[in-house]
Amino acid sequence: MLSRRIISCLDVRDGHLAKSVKFVNTKNIGDPIEKARAYYEDGLDELVFYDITASSEKRDIMIDVVEEVASQIFIPFSVGGGIRSVADATKLRLAGAEKININSAAAKRPELIREISDAIGAQSTVLSMDVLAVPVTAVIPSGYEIVINGGRKAMGMDAIEWAKQSEQLGAGELVVNSIDADGTREGYELKLTRVVADSVRIPIIASGGAGKPEHLYDVLTDGGADAALIASMLHYGEYTVSGLKQYLAGRGIAMRMGH
């Protein structure tokens, strides 16, 4: 059985680690470089770095912070925020990012997935989907809609159809982020994660809503996810990576222990 992964997400705004609830009320909560190193040393499987206002501010990602984080950790490192071209992706790869995480620009121009996948490989091309639960309509038959620019703009795109299209275009992995669950710490949106997981063959990273160890267990079993992305649980010091892995392994989930 393939090992499940614990991934932490560093949402960075103006060089500081930030945390929001449902994409609003964003607060600065520390130094992303210190956190990255601490989590790596405690056995984190993978790290995701999001420059959360790069897209909405129409600017490039902060390369210096990416380079600094990359120099501190020796695990897969995924970077997203404001990536609009193969040139952007290449620049981040040179700065130390192993995977490139695209979101808003791909939803506006889906061919970007194919272009980046062709340039750097599907295994390094990650599509992030920010998803909002909406009434079921002919346009959104699943009841899940894609939103972009940090939750600011609804796209009129069905999330399940977008997941399938992204896989066909060359995405090697999907981050499924529920805006309804984001920062609430009440658990992942299991129905959303399961529906996406059942519709594609590529790995699914569940994001949004983790508050306690049981939530990770639920999304890695009932939710069908290959990896659980967590933020607040670690950032506020209530849980450790090693403690969460021991809990999950104790409940029968295959985990990689240590590096």
* Intertermini distance: 18 Å
In CATH, the homologous superfamily goes by the name Aldolase class I
**Total helical elements:** 10
Q: Give the neighbour order of strands across the main sheet.
A: 1-4-5-6-7-10-11-12
Largest sheet: 8 strands, parallel, barrel
Order of helices and strands: EEEHEHEHEHHEEEHEHEHEHH
Indicate the low-confidence ranges by residue numbers: none
Our estimate of the beta-strand percent is 25-35%
Q: Which CATH class is shown?
A: Alpha Beta
CATH architecture group name: Alpha-Beta Barrel
Total number of strands: 12
For the structure shown, list the relevant keywords.
globular; alpha/beta; 259 residues; TIM Barrel; 10 helices
Report what the structure shows.
The chain is an alpha/beta fold and 259 residues long. It has one domain: Aldolase class I (TIM Barrel, Alpha-Beta Barrel), CATH 3.20.20. It is built from ten helices and twelve strands. The protein has an eight-stranded parallel β-barrel, surrounded by six helices. Helix 1 (32-41) runs parallel beside helix 2 (63-72). The radius of gyration is 17 Å and the shape is globular. The relative contact order is 0.15. The model has no long low-confidence stretch (mean pLDDT 90).
